[in-house]
Structure formats: structure tokens, C-alpha cells
Amino acid sequence: MKNDSKRHLLSLFVLVLFGLLAVGSIDTEEDTKKVQSQAPSYRLSANQLYSEYEANEVAADSKYKGRVVVVSGTIQDIGKDIMDDAYIVIGGEGFLDGVQCMFTKGQQSSVARLSKGQHVTVKGEVSGKMFGNVLVNKCTFGEF
Amino acid sequence: MTMAFTQTKRIYLASSFLLMGSVVYILFRPTSLLMFNWADALGLMVPIHTLRMYCLSGTNFLPSWFIYSFPFPLWVVAYLLFVKAVWWRSASSWRYLWFWCVPLISVIAEICQYFGLIPGTFDPVDLLIIILCVAFPLSMHTLYATNLIRRVK
């Protein structure tokens, strides 16, 4: 019985080790790659997307939330959120307006090369309105 | 003597599979894997990048199934061999639970990926290799149990 407890403990250790390896093998960019490969449902300017959310958030959510869109606009802000993920805000004019595009760690070098006032086109998945901005996740750059 | 040898041999074999799988992940898989974030946090990315640079040409001639479908099942086999070594000569029914939990979860996870229930890309090659890799320690066990390997020796 005592021997069995030792075996359970060892098995648990091996299982935990295996679990860690399995979690470690998760591709953090996989969702982004999936979005990148999808055809966009809408192509519009960041200002247009933001103003539709401003006019009626419920209607805009049912139209855009969870959809892949290509948005373009002028960069208003560049930064990192509390999770250390890079983002840019395109469109809008003041504080907490426009479209906030979130990027994964793999995209950080591309974000680092940008500057405020630059015009960009971004593809990503709309997540709805968050603290004023319209949030677009899993973003990538390019000519779509 | 035979018992100790077989148990030790399984541990060595399991360690080799664990190492082989890990080497493929570290040297040839994209750095977007979560494990590279952990390595970065531990300050290990410089030696990893150096090793990856030396092995860069390997990605051109190694088949994609070897890089993308093979290493995870190697870890599954390593787990199975470790569990077999841990429960060596035990009659407890618990050994079945410990043995089968990982292969079952791996196969179920692959099937769930097919139906889009969990994130990840379903690949039938992954599923096939996992099944083959589970069959490997099982067939080894059967060969030992029926004394076929010892008779050949």
C-alpha cells in the first residue's frame, strides 16, 4: 500500500511534467494565423467602424463582433497593455476613441517599426467596444 | 536482475524519447510556442537562438511530419514508458488509469480539434502517429509478456 502511494506520487509527477510540456507546445499565434487565412467579412475605415459603434453598440456588435475585418486608418497611439501585448489605436481624434488593434508577441517587431500619424491597414477579429475604443484582436499587417 | 534491467531500460528509453521530442520542439518549431515565452522569462533565449541558427538548414530537408506531428507523440510514448516503469510488477488496477489517461486525452483532444471544440488544427497524421506511438509500448509489453523478445535473444 505504501509502495502504491509512492507509485501514485511518481505517476502524478510524470503527468504534471507531461501536462507542462503539452501546455508549452501551444502555439500562441495559432488564432492569429487562423484569422489571417480567413477572408474578411468587411473592409472599412477605422473611423467608420468606430462611428457605427458610437451610433448603436448593439447593432454594431451583431454586425461585426466575432467577424474578421480589414480596417485602415491613421495611427493615433502605440503602446502595450497590462499583459505586455502591443497595440495601436487607429482612427478617432481624441482620448479613448478609434479602433484599438491588439497584436501578439510575434508581431511586436512590426509594431515597433510604426510611428504615430502613419496610415496602416490591419486585419483582425472584432471583439466589441471596450473602455471607449472598438477592440480588434489577433491583428496582422499587410495588403489584404 | 532481469526486473531491474527492464525497468531501468524503460526509464532510459523514456528519457530518450522525452529528449528527442524536446529537441525537435526547441530546434525546429516556430518560436510562437508558449514554451519559448517561458524560456525567454528564464533568460534562455540566447542559447536557444544560437542552437537554432546552427540547425537552420535542418528545417529544409526534414519532412514536415517529423517537425510538426512527431515530437508530441514522442512525449506521449515517454510518458507511457515512465508509467510502465513506475508500475512495474504491480497488480494494482490504478496502473491502467495512469497508463491510459494521457493517450486517451491526446486522442480525444485531436478529435475535439476536428469538431472545433478546442483550439488547434486537426491533422489526421497527428492522430495516426499518436495511435502508432501508443501501440509501440503496448506491443513491446506484449512481446515481453509472451517472452518473444527473450527467446529471440
Textual characterization of the structure:
The complex is a heterodimer of chains A (144) and B (153). Chain A is of the alpha/beta class. Chain A is built from five helices and six strands; from the N terminus they run ααβααβββαββ. In chain A, a hairpin with a 2-residue loop joins strand 5 and strand 6. In chain A, helix 3 (46-55) packs across helix 4. The longest helix of chain A is centred in the N-terminal third of the chain and has 23 residues, at 2-24. Chain A is elongated and about 70 Å long. Chain B is mainly alpha-helical. Chain B contains nine helices and no strands. Chain B has helices spanning 2-28, 34-41, 45-54, 58-61, 64-68, 71-86, 94-114, 124-145, 148-152. In chain B, helix 1 (2-28) packs antiparallel against helix 6 (71-86). The longest helix of chain B is centred in the N-terminal third of the chain and has 27 residues, at 2-28. The radius of gyration of chain B is 18 Å and the shape is globular. The model of chain B has no long low-confidence stretch (mean pLDDT 83). At the A-B interface, helix 1 of A face helix 1, helix 2, helix 6 and helix 7 of B.
The run of helices and strands of chain B is HHHHHHHHH
- Which structural class do you get from the secondary structure elements of chain A? alpha/beta
Radius of gyration of chain A: 20 Å
* Backbone shape of chain A: elongated
Tell me which oligomeric state these chains represent. heterodimer
The rounded Rg of chain B comes to 18 Å
Shape of chain B: globular
Pick out the low-confidence regions of chain B: none
Secondary-structure-derived class of chain B: mainly alpha
Number of strand segments of chain B: 0
- Return the average pLDDT of chain B rounded to an integer: 83
Query: What is the distance, rounded to the nearest whole angstrom, between the alpha carbons of the first and last residues of chain A?
Result: 64 Å
Strand content of chain A: 25-35%
Strand residues, percent of chain B: under 5%
Number of helices of chain A: 5
Helix content of chain B: over 70%
* Largest sheet composition of chain B: none
Mean pLDDT of chain A: 88
Task: Describe the strand arrangement of the main beta sheet of chain A, using strand numbers.
Answer: 2-3-4-6-5
Helix-strand sequence of chain A = HHEHHEEEHEE
